[in-house]
Design a protein that fits this description.
- With about 150 residues, the chain is of the alpha/beta class.
- It has a single domain, classed as Mannitol-specific EII, Chain A.
- The protein is built from 5 helices and 5 strands; from the N terminus they run βααββββααα.
Length: about 150
C-alpha cells in the first residue's frame, strides 16, 4: 500500500473498473450499487446520493476528474464503506473547473462524525496530485486498494 489510512476495507464488490455511464447519474448509480454489493449500504443510499447532487449541484466533484459521491448518514447506511468506479469514458457533472469525471468514489459513514473523518482521510489521499490519474488507469482491484491505502 502507498499509505496507511483509517479508511474501511474495500472488497472486490466495491470496485468497478472501466464502467460505462451515459451521464453523472448513471455513474453515481454504478458507485451506489457497488456500495450496496459491498454490504455497506442498502439501495436507498444510492437514491440519497443522487438526490444530494440534484439538490446541491456538482459540489461532489472535488478535484479534476474526481467525484466524491456521498449522502448523509442514516438508516440506509449499514456500516462505513467505500466504493470506487473508474469510467471508460469521462462524464460531465456540470462542474465549471473539474469536469469531466473519470473516477467516482462513493462514501458512506455510519455517523456524522465518522463521515467527516472519512472525508478528511480521502482528502489526504488526493493531496497526491496524480492519484486520480493513477486510479483512472488502474487495471486491478489490488492496484486500486494500493493507491488508496486500504485493505480488501
Amino acid at each position: 500500500m502507498d499509505r496507511a489510512t483509517d479508511l474501511p476495507g474495500l472488497p472486490d464488490a466495491g470496485i468497478v473498473l472501466a464502467a460505462r455511464a451515459r451521464d453523472w447519474r448513471e455513474a453515481v448509480e454504478t458507485a451506489g450499487r457497488a456500495l450496496t454489493a459491498s454490504g455497506a449500504t442498502d439501495a436507498g443510499y444510492t437514491t440519497d446520493m443522487v438526490r444530494m447532487i440534484e439538490q446541491h449541484g456538482p459540489y461532489v466533484v472535488v478535484a479534476p476528474g474526481l467525484a466524491l459521491a456521498h449522502a448523509r448518514p442514516g438508516p440506509a447506511v449499514r456500516r462505513d464503506g467505500l466504493a470506487i468506479v473508474t469510467l471508460a469514458d469521462p462524464v460531465p457533472f456540470g462542474h465549471p473547473y473539474n469536469d469531466p469525471v473519470r473516477v467516482v468514489l462513493a462514501l458512506a459513514g455510519a455517523s456524522s462524525a465518522r463521515h467527516l473523518q472519512l472525508v478528511a482521510e480521502i482528502a489526504n489521499i488526493f493531496n497526491d496530485s496524480d492519484a486520480v490519474e493513477r486510479l483512472a488507469a488502474a487495471g486491478t482491484a489490488d492496484e486500486v486498494r494500493g493507491i488508496l491505502g486500504v485493505a480488501p
